[in-house]
Design brief:
Blueprint: E1 3-5, E2 19-21, E3 27-29, H1 30-34, E4 39-44, H2 50-66, E5 71-77, H3 89-99, E6 105-107, H4 112-117, E7 121-122, E8 124-129, E9 134-138, H5 154-163, E10 176-179
Parallel strand pairs: 4-5, 5-6
Antiparallel strand pairs: 1-10, 2-3, 4-8, 7-10, 8-9
Amino acid sequence: MALTYSKENLIGTKAPDFNLPGVDGKHYSLKGLLHNQHGVVVMFICNHCPYVVAHQDRLIALAHTYQKNGFQFVGINSNDETNYPDDSFDNMVKVAKQKDYPFPYLRDKDQTAAKAYDAVCTPEIYLVDYEGKIRYHGGIDDNWKEPDKATKHYLKNAIEDIHAGRPVKEPTPHAMGCSIKWAA
C-alpha cells in the first residue's frame, strides 16, 4: 500500500464524460447520470485499498442520504486487474453485492476515465454539478481510520453547498489513499 495524494484539482472545469460497464450489466455515462440531478459524486474506488474499505460504509450512507435529494453517486474502479486480481470485474460484482452498493459500480478497464480526471488514488472524489462542472475534488472527511472522530466532513459539506445553490465553502483538500494501479 503506497500512500498517494491527489494532484491539483480541476475545480470549475467541465467534467470528462465516460461510458463504462457496471457490475449490474448496464453501461453508464456521466451525461446519463446527470440527467435530472443536482449533481453526481464520481468516486474512484476499488475493492482492496484499506482507505476505500475504511470509507465504504460512509460512502454508502452518504449515497442513501443524498440520492433522495437529487445527487447520483457512482463508483469507478480503474485498477489494473492483471497484477491486482482483487480488483477484477468478478470481484467487483462480489463486493458490490456484499456491501449492497446503492450506486452503480463501474469498470474502467482501459483506465481512460481515471486519466481523463487525472485521478491518482483511491478513494478520490469529484462532485460534478448539474451543469457538468467539477465543483469539488478531494477526500471524504478528515479521519479515514475512525469515522466517529472525523471533525471535517468535506464531501458532505460540498454536497450541502451545491444543493443550497452556493459555492463550495471549504477549500478542497487533497484526497489520500492507495495509488491507482496502472497497467504496464
